[in-house]
Amino acid sequence: IIALLLWLSIRGIQKKSLSYSGALAAVVLGGIIFSHPSPVFGSLLLTFYLSSSKLTKFKCEIKKQLEENHLEGNHDRLGGQRNAVQVLSNGLTGMILCCLHWRWISQTVDGTAHSPKTNALIQAALFAYIGHFACCNGDTWASELGVLSRSNPILITTFQTVPKGTNGGVSAFGTAAAIVGGLCVGTAAAVTLYLETTFMSRPSSPIGILVLIGAAAGFGGSMIDSLLGATLQKSIFNKDKKQIVQDHRVLKAGESPESFKHISGLALLDNHQVNFASSLITATATGVFGYWLY
């Protein structure tokens, strides 16, 4: 497992998917998640990482014309792209849920806490984990593919047409991508659990429901992300370059304030914080559903 994580991290640096700091964070986070006896946790992490990395590079030249801070070529101080903050904002909640699931499973195995409540918590942690990565994957798919839509998106709060790349902008194409992205995570979870020889999570519901959970979390998480982005994340449009500028950007030499237009949102959260909050909310919702369903 360690060899696989190291290989993926090195390859991520070579392919400019990860910065050095991001690769280090990915190895630590991935090492903890892959330590779980059930392969479903590692498989969902891989599903998210591999698919999101591919989509980030898909038609990146077009995306760089629309978004000033598109990850392709957006290097941090240590080089590369997704840094430790980005990795943790998309993976920390999942890692904690993985650890909780492992702890509760261990308690049932050693007999220290074998009760209906503990089993319900085990299922809640599994559903929350699936919801978390379905949200992350769905939002990434929506962002990376939605910006390529032929028509401009509408702002989720006002339904007014806004430039592509605007935080909180939604389109039919992007929304469909979010559902499919979440569906991929849900399907990966269902297939992995089906192939497991030991069904460690012991859900009382059919495995097939996990596919629906993934699709719902992909859609719902993307909508939550858009709502937070439209209200709590500031979107500024550069009228000269015809692109959305990066979070908390300051004027550069030779630039005029008249060249920039405020589209929406307050400068309270950045993109990492919005991603973290939306995935946490989605994970909580799917976890509560899993607990109730037991």
From TrEMBL:
It is found in: Membrane. The keyword Coiled coil does not apply. Keywords: Membrane, Transmembrane, Transmembrane helix. Pfam families: DUF92 (PF01940). The chain crosses the membrane at residues 25-50, 170-195, 207-232. It is a multi-pass membrane protein. One of its GO terms (cellular component) is membrane. Belongs to the TMEM19 family. This is TIGR00297 family protein. The lineage of its organism: Eukaryota, Fungi, Fungi incertae sedis, Chytridiomycota, Chytridiomycota incertae sedis.
